[in-house]
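Support reply, case 0932

Customer input (verbatim):
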Amino acid sequence: MPQIQILYWRNIPAQVRVFAERRPISAQLPERFQLHIDRVAMREGLAGTDEYLAQWQWSDKQECDGDPHEILRQTIDTLIREQDVREQDPDGNPADNPDASDNTPND
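Our regenerated output:
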């Protein structure tokens, strides 16, 4: 049964990998996720520090059913939709500070 794992910097997803019978398959999220991580790290003075590196965490592996490539695609689509929701205010307008929710761990 395939297993999925997500790489986060704090609570911001950056990469997804799916383990199946052979080597894992993986994909990075769109560039805007890394840019978001970089903005938060720079704002907090963490860029290039050991503390920045310490913020990277892989989630626990979760078993899932289905084709590994489809699991990878669906997971990335879900993470993108979730980030889009976080970046919107209750009226559906872009939030003034999309980084505001980035200070709490996801695990």
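We compared this against your earlier run and they match. Two observations from our side: Residues 94-107 have pLDDT under 50 and may be disordered. The two ends are 23 Å apart (CA to CA). Please reopen the case if you see a mismatch on your end.
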